[in-house]
Amino acid sequence: MLKDYYVLDREIHAKITEFDLAQTFECGQCFRWNKIYDNGYLGISSGKVLEIEQKQDRFVFRGTDRATFEGYWIDYLDLKRDYGKIIEKISTEMHMIRATEYGNGIRILLQDEWEALVSFIISSNNNIKRIKKIVEGLCKLYGKPADYKNNMLFAFPDPKDIYGAGCEDLGDIKCGYRAGYIIDAVEKVHLEEVDVYSIRNMKYEEGIKELMRIKGVGPKVADCVLLYGGAKYESYPVDVWVKRVTEALYLKKDSKPADIKDLARNMWGDLAGFAQQYLFYYARENKLETGVDK
Q1: What is the CATH number of the domain that holds 246?
Q2: Kindly report the CA angle at 40 between 36 and 42, in degrees rounded to 5?
Q3: How far, in Å, CA of 17 to CA of 283, rounded?
Q4: Torsion of CA 90, 96, 99, 101, to 10 degrees
Q5: Angle 290-292-294 from CA coordinates, rounded to 5°
């Protein structure tokens, strides 16, 4: 949680508890942040560039000003939320206690709804390294450039920036069959047939239905978009990692995604999304008896 901050030499210095850059940016929820030196990351969101350096619970933010930090980055990084209280509430048995102890620096980012939608369409049957490469390729093709200390970054393109393109135009980024899904999302959002920008104001069930009107968006992708872009913290995205770790630790049998989500709802309620992220990170980093490769 953000304790205090001040501006010094055009840098913002802050004390933040329950926040770890590596855990947050490498836990599978986002794809536009890259490690540029020990304890330092560079990223871009909504066209805004930010460099962050961490020294335990002390952080230095560069490339931004106080107004943008307060008006955008605090919410994006979810710095107002007391994750200590969340961990206390959900850590009611040994498995979650271990998971939260291992990943107690994870914060769930509030990403742009459109970027989350396309990113998690790309994530389908994919690994994180390849997802990042495809997302970066899409941004280089259609996004606006932003130079930061001789590092060229590209903003995530809006639907209007891609509208009119066909699957063949996405060939160079090698997204395979997902190209058709991306183009369908572009067309439906640009033509306002799907209102992705209203999902934060929708009820969870309404958001799922709205997102699944897009080709290639099933329950898992819709849950990811709602959790990471829609601030629907009751979402419990069930991918292969989450399925296997939830089955291994709690259900003790092969289960349908609906049964897994019911368990999550009963155990953690509207904090299920936080529980999911801790479990996902713990299982993936430790290859926790899932048999799944990273």
Answers
A1: 1.10.1670.10
A2: 60
A3: 23
A4: 70
A5: 125
Give the angle subtended at the CA of 149 by the CAs of 147 and 155, to the nearest 5°: 30
Q: What is the per-residue pLDDT across 117-150, written as a single tens digit (0 to 9) for each?
A: 999 999 999 999 999 999 999 999 999 999 999 9
- Give the whole-angstrom CA distance, residue 234 versus residue 153: 33
Report the alpha-carbon distance of residue 3 to residue 19 in Å, rounded: 12
**Paired tokens of 121:** 């369409």
Residues 224 and 245 in one domain: no
Residue 69 structural domain: 2-80
**What is the CATH classification number for the domain harbouring 20?**
3.30.310.260
Beta bridge partners of 11: 8
pTM to 2 decimals? 0.95
Q: Which of 191, 236, 175, 184 is CA-nearest to residue 213? A: 184
For CA atoms 229, 234, 240, 244, the dihedral sign is: positive
CA distances from 110 to 133, 258, 273 (A): 21, 25, 13
190 in Cβ contact with 81 (< 8 Å)? no
Which H/E stretch holds residue 13? strand 11-16
DSSP code string of 106-171: -------HHHHHHHHHHTTT--HHHHHHHHHHHHHHHSPEEEETTEEEEPPPPHHHHTT--GGGGG
Evaluate whether 64 touches 13 at the Cβ level (below 8 Å): no
What pLDDT, in 10s, does the model give residues 153-198? 999 999 999 999 999 999 999 999 999 999 999 999 999 999 999 9
Classify residue 284 as exposed, middle or buried by CB count within 10 Å of its CB (0-12, 13-18, 19+).
buried
Instruction: Find where tokens 């290859």 sit.
Output: 287
